[in-house]
């Protein structure tokens, strides 16, 4: 190994199981470890666990579960429930119904889960972003927030999974500041239903969206996936940078707006 | 500020999904309810349920999910095998094994990143994704995180990510 001085400093890693997935943190810079890092991580963990406790539909006693059963009024839920439902409603309108939190395919009980993860991880990331001089990438099950605070920092190098062969990547993208979210059917078959038709969305295999924050990236990835053939134009119209993998054909890069470095 | 990006070429090797390998580890928190785990470390950081590692070592703390079979793979010019934690999913446990050569994960990344323009990098948030045209016998560069279809491939990503984490890449 030569020229070790040009190798990026290895990031410290932390992993947590929460919200039914693995949350991974890569962190480097001034407070990659030490008391401040521990404190920020503890705060981030708390945010994720609290979101899980409030929003989990697998926990029968969570506020959202009770609200879905009609046992708890929205005004009596923790205020973040209304906040997340507002985000979901906004997403539904902007996607012309392609993203609809009230469509679950099973009894039409509202389940804000499609928004919660991105919202919670973004909140957790916001805590980590308070660490001065510290870069991090916080990922929950493949959706992530990247941040670089160190001047001249190298980007986080994000690999986008190939839905046809999850041992491989279909693309890579360097991210300094922003969020990356992917929706798709890898390994499980069609599972995202088009709320407008009730049928599985099957024109695309996967959509990855880059956006300034994870709520928008996550929602747009899901909505674009449902939009199918219209995903590319819809994403482009929103100024998003994205990778769309159709069911038939090659992956396509969408975007090239202000946020892009090269073409 | 001019910076040099030097990516280590790494050999393409094996990333193997090992389905059906079951371990009875409570810490892995099987997602029997369809995706929600019961694991929740305390706010102050429950070290038995979180791991942290660095570039030169494995996650010695362990996550209670299959042990830490991997060593760092940070030694120069050698390759090592890193085994990810067993990921419990509703479709069964998933585990990934990958080989790390010269500090890079192999088999998954084939393009060399452009060095970019230092000024632009600080203004912009992200570059255009670069599609990978070849998957074998190409130069590889390491990656920091994998973005994939959540829920569906959580098990795989979990496992792959854990291997990355243990490798300290």
From TrEMBL, chain A:
Q: What is this protein called?
A: FAD:protein FMN transferase
As its record notes, the protein acts as a catalyst of: L-threonyl-[protein] + FAD = FMN-L-threonyl-[protein] + AMP + H(+)
Q: What is its EC number?
A: 2.7.1.180
The transmembrane segments are: none
Cofactor(s) needed for function? Mg(2+)
Give the species this sequence originates from. Answer: Nocardioides panacisoli
Which EC class does it fall in? transferase
Q: Which domain of life is it from?
A: Bacteria
Which GO molecular function entries does the Swiss-Prot or TrEMBL record give?
transferase activity
Per UniProt, the keywords (alphabetical) are:
FAD, Flavoprotein, Magnesium, Metal-binding, Transferase
Automatic annotation (TrEMBL), chain B:
Q: Compositional bias (Gly residues) spans? A: 54-73
Region called Disordered, residue ranges: 38-84
Q: Tell me which positions the record assigns to the signal sequence.
A: 1-27
Keyword Signal included in the entry's annotation: yes
Q: What is this protein called?
A: FMN-binding protein
Q: Which residues form the FMN-binding domain?
A: 89-167
Q: Which SMART domains did the record assign?
A: FMN_bind (SM00900)
> Mind telling me which Gene3D superfamilies this protein's record contains?
3.90.1010.20
Protein's organism: Nocardioides panacisoli
Alphabetically ordered keywords of this record: Signal
- Superkingdom of this protein's organism: Bacteria
């Amino acid at each position: 190994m030569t020229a070790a001085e040009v190798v990026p400093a290895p990031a410290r890693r932390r992993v947590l199981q929460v919200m039914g997935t693995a949350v991974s943190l890569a962190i480097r810079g001034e407070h990659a470890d030490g008391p401040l890092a521990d404190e920020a991580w503890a705060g981030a963990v708390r945010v994720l666990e609290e979101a899980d406790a409030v929003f989990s539909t697998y926990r029968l006693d969570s506020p959202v579960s009770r609200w879905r059963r009609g046992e708890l009024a929205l005004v009596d839920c923790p205020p973040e429930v209304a906040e997340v439902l507002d985000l979901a409603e906004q997403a539904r309108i902007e996607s012309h119904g392609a993203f609809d939190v009230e469509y679950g395919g099973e009894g039409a009980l509202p389940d804000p889960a499609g928004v919660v993860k991105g919202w919670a991880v973004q909140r957790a990331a916001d805590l980590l972003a308070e660490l001065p001089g510290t870069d991090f990438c916080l990922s929950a099950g493949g959706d992530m927030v990247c941040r670089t605070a160190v001047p001249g920092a190298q980007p986080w190098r994000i690999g986008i999974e190939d839905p046809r062969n999850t041992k491989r990547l279909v693309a890579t993208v360097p991210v300094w500041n922003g969020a990356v979210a992917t929706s798709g059917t890898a390994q499980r078959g069609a599972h995202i239903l088009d709320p407008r038709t009730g049928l599985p969305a099957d024109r695309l295999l996967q959509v990855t969206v880059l956006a300034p924050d994870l709520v928008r990236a996550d929602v747009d990835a899901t909505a674009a996936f449902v939009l199918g053939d219209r995903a590319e134009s819809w994403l482009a119209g929103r100024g998003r940078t994205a990778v769309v993998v159709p069911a038939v054909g090659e992956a396509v890069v969408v975007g090239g707006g202000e946020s892009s470095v090269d073409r | 500020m001019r910076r040099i990006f030097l990516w280590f070429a790494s050999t393409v090797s094996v990333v193997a999904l090992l389905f059906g390998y079951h371990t009875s580890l409570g810490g892995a928190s099987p997602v029997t309810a369809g995706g929600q785990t019961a694991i929740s470390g305390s706010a102050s950081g429950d070290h038995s349920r979180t791991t942290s590692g660095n570039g030169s070592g494995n996650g010695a703390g362990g996550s209670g999910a299959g042990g830490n079979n991997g060593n760092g793979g940070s030694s120069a010019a050698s390759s090592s095998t890193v085994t990810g934690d067993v990921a419990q999913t509703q479709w069964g446990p998933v585990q990934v094994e990958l080989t790390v050569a010269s500090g890079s994960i192999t088999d998954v990344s084939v393009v060399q990143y452009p060095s970019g323009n230092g000024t632009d990098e600080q203004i912009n948030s992200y570059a255009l994704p670069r599609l990978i045209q070849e998957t074998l016998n190409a130069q590889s560069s390491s990656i920091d995180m994998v973005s994939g279809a959540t829920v569906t491939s959580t098990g795989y990503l979990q496992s792959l990510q854990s291997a990355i984490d243990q490798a300290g890449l």
